[in-house]
Structure formats: C-alpha cells, structure tokens
Design goal:
With 204 residues, the protein is an alpha+beta fold. The protein has 8 helices and 10 strands. It has a 3-stranded mixed β-sheet with strand order 6-1-10, with helices on both faces. A 3-stranded antiparallel β-sheet has the order 8-7-9. A two-stranded antiparallel sheet has the order 2-3. Strand 7 (85-89) and strand 8 form a beta hairpin.
Length: 204
C-alpha cells in the first residue's frame, strides 16, 4: 500500500529427474496446493527456498473463508487461526488486525479484497463484493462509502504495481542450492547451514 516492493523469492529448479511432488509441502501457509494441470497430477517445477512467509501471507490474504485445519506451527496458528482478522480499514486507511466484533461494526473490508485479483474458481470479485457491501451498509453514509471504494481502488492498484523479483537456481545439486541460499539470503531470519541440512534432510 505504501508502494514498497513486495520483495524477492528464491527458487530451486533441480532438474527434470527430481520428484518434487514427493518433496514439496502440500500447502503454502493455510492454502492447499494441488499440482495438477488439465486434471493430470504432475510434479511442481521448483521449490521455494526463500520468501515462504511473504508468499504464504499473500496466499492467506486471498482466502475468502476461514483457514482450513492443518498441521500448523504455533506461529502459523497465531496468525492464520488467531482471534483477530486482517481488514482494509476505512478510518486508518490501512491494513490492520481487528477483532471479529470490530470488523462487524466498523467500515472495513476483508483483506482478500485488497489484492484485487481473485482466482477463477472464486464466486465473487472485490468490486462485486464492494458493491454488495455498499448496498448493505448504507448507515455509513454515501461519502464514507465512496471514500471506502476509493481506498479499495488505490490499494488494489498499489498491490498490482508492487515489484517482485524471482531468482531461480537451475539444475543445481542440493549442495549447490544450499551454498547459493546461504550466500543470497542475507536478510530476514538467519538460517544456519545446520538448519538447511535439517530442512532438506531427504538429500541422501
């Protein structure tokens, strides 16, 4: 919303012989992953080494329903299954966490509307949701609802224009991917070589 870049993602594409479907998680945050094209299951093309929290947060924002039950870590449970919800708030003109009671009694929209693009299998677009919301919440007044529509438009344009970079490590061995990861990923939560070894313990 502040026009900062979303950031970078580091991916590893180890080669055609790697069975990444066996190695990849079946979800990204609270969003389930189905590796299928044309109804035929296939292996994903690469693994995400860095940027998982960022991408999981964006995926979570796209959910129009509650996060499904899964084997979440304690940190994931605090966010995805916590007592607060993320909304686009009219009063502060920002994204913020609020209680469900506050959400139901203030002028705000669910977080998924702010990203603008909704996958084809969803039943409603952000603008359709906004029009229905305006019809159902006339108590806020026409000016406030117009302001909310303008905020939604600004926010979706900001997300659509946010810069993202992706670095793909192609045809690398696990050792080469590990070296690249430890050299490239200098920001965020530090990961030691031992942490990396545990994360990819399947490499034998």
């Amino acid at each position: 919303m502040s026009r900062f870049p979303i950031g970078g993602f580091l991916l590893w594409q180890p080669g055609l012989k790697a069975d990444l479907k066996r190695l990849a998680k079946d979800r990204l945050g609270p969003v389930g992953g189905q590796f299928a094209v044309g109804g035929c299951a296939r292996s994903p093309a690469c693994l995400l080494l860095d940027g998982q929290h960022r991408l999981a947060t964006l995926a979570w924002m796209l959910l129009q329903e509650a996060a499904p039950e899964a084997d979440y870590s304690p940190a994931e449970r605090r966010v995805f299954l916590g007592d607060e919800v993320l909304v686009l708030d009219h009063a502060s003109a920002s994204m913020k966490f609020v209680t469900p009671e506050t959400r139901d009694n203030t002028l705000c929209l669910p977080a998924w509307t702010a990203l603008g693009h909704i996958p084809a299998n969803r039943s409603i677009t952000p603008m359709k949701f906004m029009r229905r919301y305006m019809d159902e919440n006339q108590q806020y007044g026409e000016d406030a609802l117009d302001d909310m529509a303008e905020l939604l438009d600004r926010t979706t344009r900001a997300f659509a224009g946010a810069r993202v970079s992706a670095t793909v490590i192609r045809d690398a061995t696990p050792e080469e991917a590990k070296k690249a990861f430890l050299l490239i990923s200098k920001t965020g939560v530090p990961m030691s070589a031992e942490d990396f070894d545990r994360a990819v313990g399947w490499q034998a």
